[in-house]
Amino acid sequence: MNTPLLIFNDNGIYCQQADVYIDAWKPVEKCIITHGHADHSRWGHKKYITHHNNVPIIKHRLGEIEVSGKEWGETFTINGVTFSLHPAGHIIASSQVRVSYQGEVWVFTGDFKTEEDGIAEPFELVKCHTFITECTFGLPAFKWTPQAEVFKQINRWWESNQAEGKTSVLFGYSLGKAQRLLKHLNPEIGRIYTHGAIENMTQVVRDNYSMPPTTRITRETTKEELKGTMVLAPPSAHGGTWIRRMVPYVTASA
Question: Is 235 in a helix, a strand, or coil?
């Protein structure tokens, strides 16, 4: 092809032949959404296309929108261009977008993660001619402790705080990080409480993903109830009045 199948313009990543955008950052007529984080799924598009497990997530965040849900690998054609969604492994229901036209295949990964985390659908390697990727932590300088060891450290930290009569407060984004943490926290240590933002999102995804039980923190929740428990909260809760009821507490960020 002389003309690139996908280009960047003022609205985002655009397939001109299909007149479709991917993760557009301005309102457009039709947009394929890779996942539910706010920098990828924005309000204002006339029509949305995404994986069906992501439909309730973006509806929860964006309100009543016109959205079509697709299965993994399900092909759909727009103006002669064939699209399909494939697991990206970033967070629950996150997709790569495969775009095929006249024998040429492009793939846009969106955010992706190759390490299986036990809750997000594992990354699928999709053969293509052109690969467009986001690479937040792609430099060799970034070296991560294996996640199994990290989760052991988190659970040991919780047990240690509990032995000292302290509440463990763990900060993580309400979509993606919170559910990943929930999947690996050990409920045998104690009760897991959640900030309202995390509880609301977790309830949205429970129909499609198995996670341990949680208890929402309300005005009626007492300091005594929280002592020794695990509390999951978004980063925005740090330092606010909401957290003061948990004294004595210890915080960490994931």
Answer: helix
Sign of CA dihedral 227, 233, 239, 243: negative
Taking the C-alpha atoms of residue 78 and residue 254, their distance in angstroms, rounded to an integer, is 40
For tokens 């606010």, name the residue: 240
pLDDT tens per residue, range 174-233: 999 999 999 999 999 999 999 999 999 999 999 999 999 999 999 999 999 999 999 999
Residue listed under structure tokens 């993994």: 72
For the chain, the first-to-last Cα distance in angstroms comes to 44
DSSP string of 27-58, one letter each residue: --SEEE---SSTTTS-TT-SEEEEEGGGHHHH
Query: Where does residue 218 rank: exposed (0-12), middle (13-18), buried (19+ CB within 10 A)?
Result: exposed
CA–CA distance, 242 with 212 (Å, rounded to integer): 24
Domain at 7-132, CATH class: alpha beta
8 Å CB contact between 70 and 50? yes
The CATH number, out of the four listed (3.40.50.10890, 2.40.10.120, 2.60.260.20, 3.40.50.300), of the domain defined by the range 147-253: 3.40.50.10890
Query: And the tokens for 32?
Result: 């394929």
CA distance 14 to 148: 39
